[in-house]
Amino acid sequence: MNRSLLFITAVMMLSSCAGPRAASQKTTAEGILNRTGKSVEPDTASTNSSLPPGMDLRQPLSPDDAVEIAIWKNPQLRADLATIGLAEADLIDAGLLRNPRLDMLIPVGAKPFELLLSFPVEVFWQRPRRIAASQQALDQLAQSLIQNGINTERDARWAHADVVQALDRAAVAKQSAELRERVSKLTEVRLRAGDISELETIAAKTESASAGEQLIRFEHDVQLATERLRAVLGVASERPSLRVNSSPPPAEAPSPMEALLEKAMERRPDLRAAELAIATATKRAGWERSRVLLLSAQLSSKEVGTNGVLTGPGVSFELPVFNRNQGLVARADAEVEVASRQYVALKQRIAFEVAEAREQLVQELDALKTVREQVLPPLQRAVALAEDQYKKGDVAYLFVLEQNRGLIDSQLRVVDSEAAIRRAHAQLERSVGSRY
Asked: Which of the four CATH numbers 1.10.3720.10, 1.10.150.530, 1.20.1600.10, 3.90.1150.10 does domain 2-15+54-152+252-432 have?
């Protein structure tokens, strides 16, 4: 009896000592910091509305400022990080032991007293596999959350670029409106002098009104882009006036495709998560196979006539005749195959994302260079000459209007190309998994 009690006690102590390793929210936040260079707000922060140290929403925000605030405060990222607590709870549950079972039969009439203590022995081969599967799932989730942090960085840079683009488009539209207003006034002067017909004056007024309407739309676009930036930063409920710094977009050409793809395969957290998904499914398949046999050690005490209470060991197990856990084993094997195929699909998607982002960046860099060096200078010269000739009465208003329209369209192309470069640069960083 003493040996049996000692055996069961030793099993319980040894099983409870093998604690799992947990990847906490703190370590996941450190992973985001390593990839983005920005910190997640610690759980010890005083209020949820705090900003990163040194940040002030009343000051103009650079793209890096926007990323720092978004990583710190973005509510969806913080909600995603909170889910790691669920995986940690699953890991804790995987390490718990099934409680011993005590059956006691009360002596009634001629029936003797009987006591039966059962302890699940299958813990020796099931618990390590269960813990390993839960640990892999936790690590997989941690890598996925690091990828969410990288996505948040990309979204912040996109939102910042949208605000800069909206502001620049509004500035170009303002110049266009002022120019058309000036031309409209010139036509009125020439009409009074009898140099042109009233029809040209009406056309000039119409163009001036259209330019004013376009300016109003672009100014509303500024407000819409600012609200999107607020949402990404996590300050949608706070109403300070947001301002942004409009710095030139990166002008350097990206690295060769082979180098970017190699770095992406090495650095992408979601690819690492896909690898861990295969390991998780494999561990789970091993765990499901270990559940075929359920074995319990028993300690039985029974009153036997005049001999008093006799105690002795025993075993109890299920006979795997009908149910050998075939369904869950087959499901676990299928999960391994699914995870493997998803891993291959993700590698293909990463290769496409890197190639697409790089090609977009190169395309917009080339387009911006062409417009700036070959399109804008002659248009600016043509507009200046056309306005001078119109004042002298040598050309018609429509000629001036066409020259100005071409210049405004080219200036908008510059603004759009600069914004596209900022977005493509952010997307390429996200596709690679870090700064490239």
From this structure: 1.20.1600.10
